[in-house]
Amino acid sequence: MKKTDFNKDWDFIWGEPPKIPMMPVQKKRVDLPYDFMIGTDVAKDAAGGAATGYYKGGIGSYTKYYEVTEEDVDKLHVLSFDGCFGVTKVTVNGHVVCRHNYGYTPFDADITPYVKVGSNRITVTASNTNEPNSRWYSGAGLYRKVSVLTGDRLHIANNGIYTYTKALDGDALQVVETTIENKTETDRQVKVCISLIDKATGESIAEKEDHVTVYAGASEVSRVEVEVCRPKLWNVDTPELYVCRVTISDSEHTNSGYADSDEVQFGFRVISVDAVHGLRINGQSVKLKGGCIHHDNGIAGANAFRDAEYRKVMLHKKAGFNALRFAHNPVSRDMLNACDEIGILCIDEAFDVWNMEKNYFDFSNVFASEWKNELRSMLLRDRNHPCVFMWSIGNEIVEQGGLSDGYATSQALAAFAHKLDASRPVGGALCSFFQGLDDADHEKYWRSVMANAAKLRESGMVNLDCEYGQSVWDPYTTPFVKDWDIVGYNYLSYHYEPSHEKHPDRVICCTESKPRELAAYWDYVEKLPYLIGDFEWTSMDYIGEAGIGNTFYVNPDEVQAMQQRMFYASYPARTAEAGNFDICGFEKPQIGYKKAVWGSNGTYIVSYDPSVYDKVELIGRYGWGRCEHGFSWPAENGVPIKLEAYSRALEVEVWVNGRSLGRKAAGKDNDYRAVFETTYEKGEVLAVSYDESGAELSRDVVRSVGAPVSVVIRRDETLELLREKKLIPVDEESLDYLVIEAVDQDGNFVPYAEMDITAEELGLTDMIALGTGRATTEENYTRGAVRTYRGRALAIVKKKVKS
């Protein structure tokens, strides 16, 4: 069917539309996506608390008129939503057409019976008021795109083309399955024409025909196998893409030539996993350098802007990632397109809960009756994307020990996913038993945890596993994962080798790990063939779960008191304070450590805030120390300071203003770090890495700067790179990401500067958001006034496009 964007010029109101016509309402003209939650002020009494970054839910309604001509009134008319968060109701001309509960999956509303010639009022109302309903910031309303599908009653079903590589040995055997729907009253003999097209050149590389009978009021699947001579293959290094175009016709369309046409993007590639070879793409072994990401786009809220999604993926690619895990829900279509085109492998995850809740008003309330439709919608939309290498049917599911028929539910979901797509492995993510045990086991578990309390306090961390939990973990989870092809382990590295002894055919993926323990996790990945990769929690900061990455510096006598409360963020904490990038996409210092662990021969020097030199450092589960890739602090010369060089080299030598601090061991045996202590002297710090022969491998230098005097604005390099590579066009969807930096009198960036700025003073127009990576703040990203953080702020504006 013909697909038309339906994103411009909606009228938004708070609440539901008035029941009485012509009643005055306060409207705002908006374009989609439009997350109505991100523009609100945070509140201390928000039901979601720190979990949602202290944002409150609400009810919002969007109205737009849809014009139908006399010629088109008898055609099919379908609204296709990529996602709408909240309990959603779609009405057309006053008729309730459909309702939808799961905020992350695409869904369609067939409005054909309700439209008439002329203007048709379409209203979408979303309620996010039943709280708490999420463990992170969800956003609300039409935060993803909407399309209108129109076509004949004989047509290709929406998401009805499915193509995958059945065999690959230089040449490829590509399967194309096309679902054709006949909503007429007569049987139809349908001709199906398939063309596989090189996306880069536009040339057809293979064609084939099929003929099927589609009975009245029914659907039929055309299945053909197309032989292709030596196609270019998709992988993370060369993400070669093709288009599968399908055209259908029958005897009643001899004049127009066809009844319908549709196309999908795909890549030639095959996936295999086993415990001997691990994960292989096109026969080549791949170890996953992964990160978990939530669906929000930082200061833009949950809005799934195309440019924001592509930028997020490219940031990861540039930093050395080759994989992302969508945690813990389906993402937008644009996110998947970005991963296809940039070359990132993905775990496509369906659910964070099944029948047992994590929040009282979450999806568990309707899971039993709706999981099949939601899982189907995700798989049908996403199964052509070559970037998706695994379906995840659940994350840290409470039922993993068998509660509430968890074993049967797991079997049913895995079987359903395998049936809809047999070309990919299916799995999920397990965790320790801090939840999910019956009353008797639960009591034994927590008694065991408390018995180790003294040891846990000494470690400075909260470890929610224990001797009893480990003893029951394997026997309780084995029935749960028996139908999974890949078993995800969240923070369970101590189970890798024992699991392999008991289950030698099990393929394991570290689906969540802690950033400061990356080297240990990655060492397992490199040495265990059945462990296919590591996904850090998280690779990018996000709104919600506020404070889980907090780092505190306290006096020695305050340590115990702080350990007892450091994991509980208070208002106005907003972001998790995790990740290698903050919510603006600015790199954090730990990115240098990650690159060293992953094999970079580069050197990366950081300096720690001298004001915390004599404090005890308490780092949260997902946190990092207070340091910068620089040597500028608002401190006096002569105060003590710690320097840290990240390097995989044997040794690192550091000079401060030409004075050597000596050489220290780095590399794998020293957690890829060399630590130096000196006194702060404004000037230059040089770090040089040396190999075993004493030869220089690489160097890094940072310099002190002056006091901040002004700010400068520059275009975001990543977004410009995407346009340069022609991965995103310049069109009416385009955004500009403007990086605002505090500078000294010589134009040098000042990393510690905090300066109040406004959109008006900066001359910003068509602003979508202005904000920083500050983790605790009451600032409203849509109001146009913030204080720079770590010397920077980010503005997102609509790009001015020449007509």
The total of helices stands at 13
What characterizes the major β-sheet?
8 strands, parallel, barrel
**Uncertain ranges:** none
Count of strand segments: 44
What integer is the average pLDDT?
95
Query: How large is the share of residues in beta strands?
Result: 25-35%
Structural class: alpha+beta
Termini separation: 28 Å
Lateral strand order in the biggest sheet:
21-22-23-24-25-26-27-28
| Helix residue percentage | 10-25%
From the alpha carbons, calculate the radius of gyration and give it in angstroms: 28 Å
What global shape is seen?
A: globular
Q: For this entry, what is the oligomeric state of its chains?
A: single chain
Question: What layout of secondary structure does this protein have?
Answer:
Elements: E1 2-5, E2 10-14, E3 28-30, E4 59-68, E5 76-81, E6 87-92, E7 95-100, E8 107-110, E9 118-127, E10 146-151, E11 154-169, E12 171-182, E13 188-198, E14 204-214, E15 219-228, E16 242-249, E17 260-266, E18 271-274, E19 278-281, E20 284-285, E21 288-293, H1 306-319, E22 323-326, H2 333-342, E23 345-349, H3 367-382, E24 388-395, H4 406-420, E25 426-430, H5 439-451, H6 453-459, H7 467-477, E26 486-490, H8 496-502, E27 508-513, H9 518-527, E28 531-536, E29 551-554, H10 559-565, H11 590-597, E30 604-608, E31 616-619, E32 627-628, E33 640-646, E34 651-656, E35 659-665, E36 673-679, E37 684-690, E38 696-703, E39 710-715, H12 717-724, E40 735-743, E41 756-758, H13 759-762, E42 767-771, E43 785-787, E44 792-798
Helix pairs in contact: 1-2, 3-4
